[in-house]
Amino acid sequence: MPEPYRTRISPRWSDQDLNGHVNHAAVVTLLEEARIRWRATTPGARTAAATPTVVAALELNYRRPVIHGQDLTVELTVSRIGTSSYTLECAGTQSGEVAVDGRTVLVAVSPETGAARPLADEERHWLAQFQLSSCRT
């Protein structure tokens, strides 16, 4: 049965802004770190590097401040698998409360040309492992 990918990210002291919480731009970087860890679980030694993606769209909702000193637990799920792109939903929690949620649209690109390319069957199979039944389109 498909399950979300979960990881814990530690905000760095330098991620804080003058308000004493993690800057909104640094939150994007923390979520990117979670996404990189997730992509590193792609089967095959070099698959993630051999099948690059680019961010086509990013939408985040900041629900409460992210603070330094507590790990951010990030959960990732796939909500849509298209021809050459897919949508990754994210939620980051601290102290059991959602601090940030949103989605990222990623486009598969050719490592040789940088142009969009269709997702391979192996990629689709791997992505489907994180596509919850309630998210399937």
Write a structural description.
- The chain is of the alpha+beta class.
- It has 3 helices and 5 strands, in the order βααββββα.
- The protein has helices at residues 24-39, 47-50, 121-128; strands spanning 5-9, 53-62, 72-81, 85-94, 97-108.
- A 5-stranded antiparallel β-sheet has the order 1-3-4-5-2.
- A hairpin with a 2-residue loop joins strand 4 and strand 5 (97-108).
- The longest helix is centred in the N-terminal third of the chain and has 16 residues, at 24-39.
- The chain is globular and about 45 Å long.
- It starts with a strand and ends in a 9-residue tail after the last helix.
- The mean pLDDT is 91.
* Gross morphology: globular
What is the helix tally?
A: 3
Main β sheet profile = 5 strands, antiparallel
- Alpha-carbon distance between the two ends: 17 Å
Structural class: alpha+beta
The H/E string reads EHHEEEEH
- Rg estimate, integer Å: 15 Å
What proportion of the residues form beta strands (DSSP E)?
25-35%
Placed side by side, the strands forming the largest sheet appear as: 1-3-4-5-2
Number of strands: 5
Mean pLDDT: 91
